[in-house]
């Protein structure tokens, strides 16, 4: 199956520090990939390169076969992106912001209204459409960011901490939305919440110090945990804390 998102040998250095060191992966339609790693592992930097917001020092990224860095405008037409922090124009009411985002995506008139209504319904923002974004809670801001990412029904979604700041009910709703949207799409979720791998991801990649150290289903990753517990928490600690010293290459190919 052809990959809708493909990363080839991405490298990013900041002076003498290498934040991302040769990451390659592909995500086909129908797959929800959990992108995991400890703080500072290079997750957000990788996602910024994958979306064209940061130029790699080496390597390339492709969205629907389109090179993100040689044809960024066309690549981004195929992309929905929820960045870290979900930046927005804080003084704008939610509806005005989504209308602006729709216009930037070429959606106006009845088409734009229909797209906004659908995104608002999916993210349950109907009660706050006239509220300025800067006055909203972290969870609601996150939902506004998710709404703008899905407005244009993109074939590729890249979501950085999509449930950050949400209460348990909201997390459940967003996970159900992601699962529903996965049909025919490639979705990448960066998260610190390991339970989301079980809840919504069909595959997970763990990175540490800018490199992939594990890649597989939740059940395959559990097998990397030492002892009898075989939990995702234990597996995560094993491959990112040196407890599986000497097995990084094996872990990367589970």
Explain the overall architecture.
- With 254 residues, the chain is α/β, with parallel strands linked by helices.
- The protein folds into two domains: 1-8 and 28-64 and 170-199 and 206-254, Rossmann fold, CATH 3.40.50; 90-154, no CATH class.
- Helices cover 36% and strands 25% of the residues.
- The strands form two sheets. It has a six-stranded mixed sheet with strand order 6-7-8-3-9-10, with helices on both faces. It has a four-stranded antiparallel sheet with strand order 2-1-4-5.
- Strand 4 (58-63) and strand 5 (66-67) form a beta hairpin.
- Helix 3 crosses helix 4.
- It is globular.
- The relative contact order is 0.16.
Strand line-up of the largest beta sheet: 6-7-8-3-9-10
Helix count? 10
Distance between the termini: 20 Å
Structural class: alpha/beta
Mean pLDDT: 90
Element-by-element helix/strand order: EEEHEEHEHHHEHEHEEHHH
Helical proportion?
Answer: 25-40%
Provide a short characterization of the protein structure.
With 254 residues, the chain is of the alpha/beta class. 36% of the residues lie in helices and 25% in strands.
